[in-house]
Specification:
Growth Hormone, Chain: A, about 0% strand
Length: about 450
């Protein structure tokens, strides 16, 4: 079993890789649902866009309950196996089953029965995804307390997530070319459900947790969010992350519609693949640059570039294929930067919280940020569904000018506004490397003073 207990030393690449591999499957599942479930439901299952939007909206409401509970109980778990491992082992198989259910609706189902099936599948998928993702992210924050090591850890996690995401996009390319998309979807999702379950279980059995954090979770579930609300650093980045996720979800939800009905003659999986390749290959760049310019400056710059990149898409129209690929690459690189830096910054904020409260609440904090991300994606799906229906969208047909303008506005102007607001707010963030070093020093003094008491 790999030792993940050294708090400050440089971690072996092998250990970080073992930790990150499960996110290949998690990334495949999450992005496949975000990118294709709306299009699959409306154009393959022939469900009404508003009904699909309502399903995702309900799942977001339920996340308001499941996310904080997952974080709280993960932090509070005490066992000889650790705080995080039991959750990963217990939720791996249900996650694979819930994901498969989304794509395995029986052919005989129609109308209300089909809506009910999809509602159960989507709600179950997001609920169980929380039970896997929150403990796994929290485990990453515990692997090291070093300011820059955390960027390495979450950089590798993002890299592996993108490998899964790129795989999902490649699968979508073949699905869009298939004469039997429903059958091919079921085959591919079955394969990757099995892979994800095996990867999660294998990693959970291979890594050792830091036992000194056991028994130091929050005393009450609402106390987590009371403390989060009192933490000025957490309040700020939570709002920023929500706004950024709100705009960033556009690339997954609306790219299929933008490609098919506005740009024309362009493969939406290849557009998304371009985005993901850029997001993946630039991970080492962001990890290195964060040491030079700092996490704040790097994340802030990525927000500005992303806002401008999305804004340019408003002027993209029929036949603008090359411009679309260039913009997708720029957006992928900038978006990848945010995905690497955000969880690293969140881990630093957890240390600040420990200094104030004496508790370790990685689970609670990452649950809150998971809820922000999923809520943003759900809101974007809801907004898209209702906007398409109101504009007169007709599946698999040539769209009129109103529908095309609606799609372009949602794809460009909406994320442009989101990222501009997020960037302005983030200029106020103050927990930089120097401030974090002071927090670490004070925590080290406190822990040293408590050791004699623990021994006695």
């Amino acid at each position: 079993m790999e030792d993940a207990s050294a708090p400050g030393a440089r971690l072996p690449n092998r250990l970080i890789l073992i930790y990150a591999v499960p996110t290949m499957g998690i990334g495949f599942m999450f992005f496949f649902v975000v990118l294709y479930s709306m299009k699959y439901a409306t154009d393959v299952l022939l469900m009404a866009p508003a009904a699909v939007s309502l399903i995702f909206g309900v799942s977001r409401v339920l996340d308001a309950v499941t996310d904080p509970l997952a974080g709280y109980f993960s932090d509070r778990t005490q066992s000889r196996h650790g705080r995080r491992r039991p959750w990963l082992l217990g939720a791996a198989l249900p996650l694979g089953g819930a994901f498969l259910m989304i794509w395995a609706a029986p052919l005989a189902l129609q109308g209300a029965e089909l809506v009910a099936w999809m509602a159960v599948a989507v709600v179950a998928f997001y609920a169980v995804m929380t039970l896997v993702n929150v403990p796994h992210q929290s485990w990453g924050a515990e692997l090291s307390e070093d300011y820059h090591e955390r960027t390495r850890i979450f950089g590798m996690r993002h890299l592996m997530t993108n490998v899964g995401t790129v795989t999902a996009v490649l699968c979508l390319y073949f699905i869009t070319q298939s004469d039997d998309p429903r059958g091919l979807v079921l085959l591919l999702t079955t394969i990757f459900s099995a892979f994800t379950v095996i990867a999660i279980v294998s990693a959970a059995l291979s890594l050792r947790e830091r036992t000194e954090f056991q028994g130091r979770g929050p005393q009450a579930v609402l106390g987590v969010y009371r403390d989060l609300g009192r933490n000025p650093h957490a309040r700020l980045i939570m709002v920023v992350y929500f706004i950024e996720s709100l705009g960033g979800s556009t690339i997954g939800v609306l790219t299929p519609y933008m490609a098919q009905y506005v740009i024309l003659n362009i493969s939406f999986p290849l557009v998304v693949l371009t985005y993901m390749i850029a997001s993946t290959i630039t991970v080492p760049l962001w990890t290195a640059l964060s040491r030079r310019v700092g996490k704040k400056a790097l994340w802030l710059s990525s927000m500005v570039v992303t806002s401008l990149g999305f804004g340019c898409f408003f002027f993209v129209g029929e036949g603008d294929v090359l411009v679309s690929y260039v913009l997708a690459f720029i957006l992928g690189a900038a978006g990848g930067c945010g995905n690497v830096i955000a969880p690293s910054v969140t881990s630093d904020v957890v240390d600040w919280d420990e200094l104030q409260t004496g508790e370790r609440k990685e689970g609670g904090y990452f649950a809150a940020f998971s809820f922000m991300q999923k809520s943003a994606a759900g809101i974007t799906v809801m907004l898209t569904g209702f906007a398409l229906q109101l504009s007169g969208y007709v599946p698999n047909a040539v769209q009129d000018e109103t529908v095309r303008l609606t799609i372009s506005s949602l794809y460009a102007l909406f994320p442009l506004s989101c990222y501009c607001i997020g960037a302005l707010l983030f200029t106020r963030f103050s927990l930089n490397e120097a401030a974090h070093e002071k927090v670490k020093a004070l925590l080290a003094e406190r822990r040293a003073s408590l050791k004699p008491e623990a021994a006695s």
